[in-house]
Amino acid sequence: MQINLKIWRQENPESAGKLEEYTVADAHPSMSFIELLDVLNEQLIKDHQEPIAFDTDCGEGICGSCGMMINGVAHGSQKQTAVCQLHLRSFQDGDTITVEPWRAKAFPIVKDLVVDRSAFDRIVVAGGYVSVNTGAAPDANSLPVAKENSDRAFDYAACIGCGACVAACPNASASLFTAAKVAHLALLPQGAPERKQRVLNMTAQMATEGFGDCSNHGECTAVCPKGVPLEAISAMRREYIKAMF
Question: For residue 37, how many C-alpha atoms fall within 13 Å in the half-sphere facing its CB?
Answer without folding.
Answer: 26
